[in-house]
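In the laboratory, one determines a bound structure by crystallizing the protein with its ligand and collecting diffraction data. In a computational setting the workflow is compressed into a single prediction: the sequence and the ligand go in, and a structural description comes out. We illustrate the idea with succinic acid.
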Amino acid sequence: MQNKADRIVILGTGGTIAGKAADAADNVGYVAGQVSIEQLVQAAPPLAAYLLETEQVAQLDSKDMDFATWQLLARAVDRHLARPEVLAVVITHGTDTLEETAFFLQRVLAPGKPVVLTAAMRPSTALMPDGPQNLLDAVAVAAQAESGVLAVMNGRVHGAERLRKVHSYAVDAFASVESGPLGLVEEGRLRWLGAMPESASALGLSRIAKDAKDWPWVELIQNYAGADGRGVDALLAQGVNGIVVAGTGNGTLSVRLSVALERAQAQGVRVLRSTRCDAGPVIGGVLPSAGALSPVKARVELLLQLLA
Ligand code: SIN
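The predicted complex, in structure-token form:
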């Protein structure tokens, strides 16, 4: 009879970490999502120290992440975490939408065991791939953390709420805005620098039960010099369900954009106002604020609210 949670399940979803290029010197001209999760584990021999299971949930470039894959992933994570012998789940993912998936999983599952996402900026074929070390670090963090959705990249541990991709090319591509990383991974040891932020309770898998093709349409727009309301009117005409607007500064909007969004709201479209600034909340104002959520996370939040 199994009475000890001692195994870690690694779910593969694709990304650059599973990418392949024809030339080892090529760190950009690769195809993401080519290498299986079993092969990624084999490429990091020190992982043999852990009791691991793998499952290939998807094999895609995360720019193409979609609702059906999110649904599949959330269900797989939940199913594995419910097994008493499973200590934690690690997910390999593309860097491009990793922060959205991390936030989505945190809001839906708020897991009581660790769920650790990791990725790479260089393909598996690179002269110096960053994926094997990141995967090893992610498994080490999964074995030592207590709960919640985390991300591990370049020796740093980030929480789902503050995590953002902040660089398009460097291996140190992620940051926790406003606070710095939650922790560091040093030779396999997790050193916490800060406490996990308080997180809201799980919305639950029932919230995302609807067929993914019927999920609400939530669009993301911005304020900028010369912004007007024509884009909003076009979205309204096409039947948009929700709009997240990344305002300037403290979520400010041009008069014409603001009027168009208020008109949309009066017609039943849910609007959330975030900021295009890299950090900081949106305080006050007429249209509802997304607080300190980045525009892409505000979009996930609105999507989940509309699914209620
Ligand atoms: C992706 O997001 O799948 C491709 C880019 C990356 O992983 O860095």
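The domain at 7-192 is CATH 3.40.50.1170 (Rossmann fold). Keep in mind that any predicted model is a hypothesis to be tested, not a measurement.
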